[in-house]
Amino acid sequence: MKNVTISMDDELARRTRVAAARAGKSVSKYLAEAAREKMNAEETAELRNPQLEALERLWASPKWNVTENGRMPTAEERNARR
Question: Which of 17, 43, 60, 73 could form a disulfide with 77 if both were Cys (CB 3.0 to 4.6 A apart)?
């Protein structure tokens, strides 16, 4: 386990101590867990592929049956005004 010295302004230090106390943790443990959560979130974001997620949503959507009597409609049938 490494010891790390950090600097922060007085107000942030006070708020950090209060938040750690509310969580029932030491400031050291509170900050270590916050850093771990931040790093895990960044790793998860790097693995995310928005284009792939969009395609997966599209593929999961309900299918649209365009066949008529087992065949695809012709251009004239598709464009006919009804």
Answer: 73
Which residue reads 């790097």 in tokens? 46
- Tens of pLDDT, residue by residue over 34-79, are 999 999 988 877 777 888 889 999 889 888 888 878 888 889 888 8
Residue type at 15 in one-letter notation: R
**Residue in 50, 51, 31 with CA at minimum distance from that of residue 39:** 31
3-class DSSP assignment, residue 26: coil
Pairwise CA distance, residues 17 & 26, whole Å: 8
- pTM here is 0.55
Tokens read off for 57 = 């949503």
